[in-house]
Amino acid sequence: MTQVPDRPAEGDLPPRAAAAGLAAADDWRALFARYSDIVLVANSTASDVAALRAQYPRDALFVFFNKVFKVLDQPFEGHAILVTRGQPRGAGIVYRGEVDEVLSFFDKAHFLGIMNIRLAEEEKPNTSADFHDAPTGHLDLRGHFDPLYTEGKVPTSGFAMALWLSELRLPGTITLAGFSARRSEKWRVVSVHDWSFEQVFLRLFARLGKIAIHGGAGTNAYARLAERFPEIPPSEIALAASEVLSERLSNTDGEVDKLISLTNFIRAADNFLRRLKPSALRRRRRS
Description:
- The protein contains nine helices and seven strands.
- The protein has 287 residues and is an alpha/beta fold.
- α2 links the parallel β1 and β2.
- The relative contact order is 0.12.
- The protein is globular, with a radius of gyration of 22 Å.
- The chain starts with 24 loop residues before the first helix and ends with a helix.
- The N terminus and C terminus are likely disordered.
- 38% of the residues lie in helices and 13% in strands.
- It has a seven-stranded parallel beta sheet with strand order 5-4-3-2-1-6-7, with helices on one face.
């Protein structure tokens, strides 16, 4: 029988700025293991932080990502840590000059600091000075997901953290909130990530009990179909579903091609204006 780790003791939580200087996986595990609930909050329209705060213990740790002003409209007073991704130019909030704005959303009394992660060789870590001397730790996961993830794609920060935390076998519950991977007028779905793979993987992990999904993973209609008609093998249901999905994607590709053709002029105008922008900015600086 597998021994279940003890739950973290109440009141025995890491102090503010506890992430400063951490780099080893064991040190990070020791920090996360002291929380009974770890809630990963995606930058998504599906994330209602006020509602989440009301539904989880006051001492739950909330993990935010990069541009928290997308999901926060006032300072967050709970226990929190900010995950930033070392992109080829370093963290986006650094080179875009958004550090002060992002950090202003955290209550210093309960803010553990910044966890600067690196997932690929070309990604560049940042120093605490880059984050205006905010408490900063680092986690190097280069190559960690290569045997698993889709070739030619890179994991999202949220997926990477969810999977890595689950691998630590923490005593607390890891919950994903707002991980919908849905496009909207406000949110982009960047093509460098394999969103379909991540959604499938996370739902399977939730059904295995390795993570939890806020609001539940949803009922699988195909599983209900198999229960209703036991004479149909699950493999046949999966094959039929794959055939329908393939046909729908092919039809979508055809419509997208038409849209690309119709918007050629708009994209050409946009590219022309983008080429003019740097020279316009240089003239503005000289004046």
